[in-house]
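Researcher: Checking consistency across runs. Here is N-acetylgalactosaminide beta-1,3-galactosyltransferase again:
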Amino acid sequence: MALFRKLSRPLLLPPTLHSRLLQNIILIASCLILLLFFLYNLREPEPTQLLPYQIYPQANDSIHHTVTEFLPISVQPGTDTTRELCDSFPKHVLTRIQPILKTGHGDNKEKLNAQMDSTSACFTPDELIIFSDLDEKIRNHHAIDILAHLPSSHYNATTFKMWEEYLAQKEMQANGILDTEAQVKHINGWALDKFKFLPMMERAWAMKPNKDFYVFYETDTYIFWDNLFRFLQTYNPDANIYIGSPSPGRRDPKRGDQGTLFANGGPGYVISRGAMKTLLQRATGPYGQYTDDPLSVKFSYLNHDDECCGDSVLGWVLWELGIPMHGHWPMFSDYGLHDIPFNDQHWCQPLITLHKTSPKDMVDLFSWEFSQRKSQRPLLYSDVWEFHKPGTVPARENWDGGRFDAFEPPPEAVIESSKQCSHACGEDPGCLQWKWEGRDRGKCILLGSLQHGRARKAEKEGNDKETWVDYTSGWVEEHIKDWRKKQQCDVVKWVGASVERKF
């Protein structure tokens, strides 16, 4: 007799599942469920729905009738002292609008002096906030070390190696060896700059709370204050407003990898009272205690040695908080004075800020701007053209006339010299100036806008550094006269919010 008998059905199955048919049905159903699960995971992800605040503002140009805040003045350029020019500055506006200059100890001193003699010349120490990376005197102003009171996490984090340079700079100050070759060699002021932006928001509000607008600018920023004050008359300070010249920033992986924008710090940017409150708001518990960190700690993970720029970090934080940027280029311009391409986009539009402005241009613009106060309309690009009048000489050797609105001569044209390049421009009514890249390159470039350009000597280029290029530029006076006659500024074109230029 067998010790063990083969079981006819599994012991663990309940009696109701002993049927072979039912077992097959369960097996097939299980396979179908697994298949459906696999196909579900292979499906195309649904596009991320964009919330309203994630759509950048787009607005048509406007013809707002603004009024000047400045007192009437009649002066001659270059003949009046800074004090006399500043007598007409509307100090009452500073109860509503807060200027904030960002600099660094390592900034070029010639540029800083020009800034204090022009854009920032009319402000008393109580009216202007200056943020830097070192506590020190700038003229009769106190520059605040905005990095000094950040939490120790910034100093200890392994991704913040640049803090070593900040601490080294403070040690140099204590030892009296600042402004020496050691500092220039070892302190990278640009690398420290990115850490200033978020704490600047907190400190500016703490020092001057509830202003209508906060205007942030840099050492080489020139601001036409009358135009800026007029422009801000068109905005509600209690709305979430963040204004500037748009630059491409991070992509947002949580929202369909959408590209984002930030206001370039060089041309300056404006943040409203409403936006500052949103930026600095902290959640609280039932008994009033804060339940989250302050701004500069909450988003400190964005600041690390691989991050390029603090203005990009600020733009991303505002984006995360639901405040997209109002792009008002070219009124907020990232060009220097001599780089402006005067054309349809740069003629009847008010000019609010310039970037990369040379020290001489800063001081000259300041005196000239005050001499224009007799006009009741804002200063336009066309006025700035009259100020330095590019295109009043036929040709300049060792001169690069610019690069905007460039096009090539007709393919049938034989051009082997600057003289032939000049002739080709003269034959084309749409050509206002030309540029000959000579020597080994031998290239003629025609330009459809007016640019002043800058001196540029012959230089070597290419991988072997054996290719020589020199530059000669020229202007066609008759074409310029004809073009200017057509550019009538009967209406001031306040440029509406747009980001098309950057996207």
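Researcher: Does this match what you'd expect to see?
Model: One thing to look at in this run: The first strand starts at residue 97 and ends at 102.
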